[in-house]
Each structure stands twice: as structure tokens, then as C-alpha cells.
Amino acid sequence: MVADIVVVHGLWADGSSWSEVIPLLHAAGHRVHAVQLPLTSVEEDVACTRQTVDRLPGPVVLAGWSYGGAVLTDAAHGAPNVSALVYVAAFAPEKGECGNDILARFPSGVGEAVQLDEQGRMWLDPARYRQVFAADLHASRAAMLASVQKPAAPACFSTPSGEPAWRTIPSWYLVAENDEALPPAAQRWMAERMGASLTSVAASHAVPLSRPERVADVIAAAAAAGC
Q1: Long-range contacts: 35-39, Cβ < 8 Å, 24+?
Q2: Residues 6+ apart with CB under 8 A from 211
Q3: Are 192 and 134 in contact (CB under 8 A)?
Q4: pLDDT digit string (tens) for 124-168?
Q5: What one-character DSSP code corresponds to residue 91?
Q6: What's the pLDDT band for 109 if we cut at 50, 70, 90?
Q7: DSSP state at residue 211
Q8: Is there a contact between 156 and 180 (Cβ–Cβ < 8 Å)?
Q9: Cis status, amide bond into 59, omega within 30 of 0
Q10: pTM above 0.85, yes or no
């Protein structure tokens, strides 16, 4: 059965993060909608995502990568047309928890790679982008991603989450086992806490680009289960 699949990107990226996954989902007959987050605040990112969800009849599968998982955790709450959630190397906060809380519990190298500009926005140091984010991509491709990254407001990491949608909506989680940005131990801890259907792949944080087939397979499985 055909599903509407909404994909949500993370920090220091945009909707093109899903460019390798989307054609695979199209080939499986699904409709895909890539949200372009402003990355100005959690509230605005959630509102942007919910606007996309609300205009679809359903069933809707929401898939989030990295910070996109925190966004969909709030955005899907109370959305009757959402049938499944998919977390791809993603944050899956509990109520009152923020990204900084999770990274404090499971430290990673991403903090040392963050740079603040004079407007207070966060960037990922281009010289460390591949090491932290995309170690299994070709150096030239990782450099391109670093060049087109979107800056993010610090509030994206520090705003407490609301009531988590994963408490009432079936969830899937894909762990990236070679992730240097969000430690695999953190990913498994969140997946187990929410009771998600768990799979893993040997990949960096940029798993939607380095292992798109595995990502598409997990999303398609969630769509099949939720239809």
C-alpha cells in the first residue's frame, strides 16, 4: 500500500540529505515530502514539519535523521494521520529532555567541532565535517556537504522536548554503528527506551547518504506495518 512519507533532516544539512533515499522510496511506489527546516528554533522546526503532515490524508510515515528525530518526536504528537515513526541515527528525546542532555550522557566529538558566528549561530567546522559527520563518504562529497551546510540556533539543542509521539505511535530505529556525532550507545539507549524496532548498519552519521538502501528498507518496513 502506498504511504505518504515525510522526511526530516538534521542540523548542518538540508532536505537534500535524503536525495539518495527518496528515489528508492519513489521506486517502491511511495510519495515523499522533504521538509526544509529553518533551524531557527525547535518550535519553528516543529511547526514547519507539522504543516507538511497536516496537509496529507495519511497514512503518514515520519522519518527523521539526527536532530530531525527530535523534531518529529514533537511534531507527530496528536497527529491522527501519522501511522509510524522512523529514527535514523536520530535524537529521540523523552519529555523535558533536550539534545544537550543526551550528549552530556553520551559525549561525542561534535561539541568540539561546533563553531559560533557573530550572530550566535552554530556551524560545523568544515575541516572536521567529514571526520565527525561523514567519514564513509568520499572526501570531495563531504567537503561539498560542509560547504552547503545550514547554520543552526543553539536553542535547537537546548529546548526541552514535549510529550513524545513515540509513546503512542509505533517506532523504528536504525543505528549507525560508526557514528562519531551521535554515539551508537546513545542511539541504542533511546531505541530501547522507546521500544522501537531496532536495526543497525555499519555507517557514519551521514547514513542516509552513505547507506541509502538500508535507510529506505527500514522506512518501507514501517510504511508496510502502518498501512
Answers
A1: 35/6, 35/7, 35/8, 35/9, 35/68, 36/9, 37/8, 37/9, 37/68, 37/71, 37/150, 39/11, 39/150, 39/151, 39/152, 39/153, 39/156
A2: 201, 203
A3: no
A4: 999 999 999 999 999 999 999 999 999 999 999 999 999 999 999
A5: -
A6: confident
A7: S
A8: no
A9: yes
A10: yes
